[in-house]
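ok trying this again, last paste got cut off
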Amino acid sequence: QVQLVESGGGLVQAGGSLRLSCAASGRTFSRYAMGWFRQAPGKEREFVAAIDWSGGNTYHRDSVKGRFTISRDNAKNTVYLQMNSLKPEDTAVYYCASGSDIASVATMIVLDWGQGTQVTVSS
């Protein structure tokens, strides 16, 4: 099992930026794909972005392409989500997760979840 701890959430005005971090401990971090998901009040959890074990391949949902970027630093056991041009509809609890490969993560077949961090975008 791997422990995942998210940080970096907060309140930001529309058009602003935040960078989320997810620190991992436990299993060998560099062996696993990682992803970010979000859940808004009253809605189901949805996929946001995924990255493979090396960081060489990434995948983002259409609504965040060009605004959000997932990246990882295997030396620091950390995955990031840089969020720019934030919109009120991006308001949600953001979760990171680990998975066996990028395709699995993108379809929410994950091994471990973090506890989440709140992102609130005001209009």
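PB: full thing came through this time. The mean pLDDT is 96.
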